[in-house]
Design goal:
Structural class: alpha/beta
CATH superfamily of the largest domain: Response regulator
CATH topology of the largest domain: Rossmann fold
Number of strands: 6
CATH class of the largest domain: Alpha Beta
Order of helices and strands: HEHEEHEHEEHHH
Low-confidence stretches: 4-21, 197-217
Helix content: 40-55%
Distance between the termini: 73 Å
Strand order of the largest sheet: 1-3-2
Shape: elongated
CATH architecture of the largest domain: 3-Layer(aba) Sandwich
């Protein structure tokens, strides 16, 4: 008689073989990504690329993505956008027109996403992105841009709220809180500068009167 541990091991092995066989039968979809592998966004661009590759690996290990009676695995054609918006847009054109990708993964940063989005819209190619949070990406009526992250106005709201709450706890008015923010001149950073939650919190905690903050950027 096979021992319980042996039965469990055999079951796991069978599942692994079954999963591998199923993955091998899946169709492969090729995605495209213009992403920063050099330039000022290189560190974050490489992290984003590693995240894409990790997800692709896990999907394959678990038998692919099932849609109806078919399953799919993925591979990605990457090009280095050199952290430049015009370069990213050119590479998006290349991925769609020459490499014939039908789906895109977003670049790093709101600025580069903003540069590429008009291209994917033009060709009606869905782009899933997780690195462009500026609100300016989502008020253009884009139909082929899909984001999986919070938008920029939510990033510092909780921190501003906490600062005001701590001021109240220490017997001070929330309006006395001064915040200095040093930002880059890009869409995401300018959103953070403009909409860090100062006014919203003031209306809630200061009887509807606006609270003043100090922002440098």
């Amino acid at each position: 008689m096979m021992k319980p541990l042996g039965i469990a091991g055999a079951a796991l092995a069978l599942c692994a073989v079954s999963g591998a066989a199923q993955a091998a039968e899946c169709e492969t979809l090729t995605l495209g990504s213009a992403i920063s592998l050099t330039g000022k966004y290189a560190t974050n661009g490489v992290h984003a690329k590693n995240g894409y590759e990790f997800a692709i690996k896990k999907i394959k290990e678990n038998g692919g993505i099932k849609v109806g009676d078919k399953c799919y695995n993925f591979n990605v054609i990457y090009y280095d956008d050199e952290s430049k918006g015009d370069r990213g847009a050119t590479l998006a054109e290349r991925l769609i027109s020459q490499d014939k990708v039908q789906y895109m993964l977003g670049p790093y940063s709101s600025g580069l996403t903003k540069a590429i989005a008009p291209v994917t819209e033009k060709y009606e190619i869905p782009m899933v992105e997780a690195e462009g949070a500026s609100r300016s990406l989502f008020n253009k009526g884009y139909k082929y841009l899909f984001a999986v992250l919070s938008t920029s106005e939510q990033y510092l709201a909780s921190a501003i709220t906490l600062a005001a709450e701590m001021a109240e706890k220490n017997g001070k008015e929330p309006s006395s809180v001064k915040v200095a923010v040093a930002v880059e001149n890009d869409p995401f950073s300018l959103d953070i500068r403009a909409i860090s939650g100062f006014g919203d919190y003031a209306c809630r905690r200061n009887g509807g009167k606006e609270r003043q903050g100090t922002v440098f950027g």
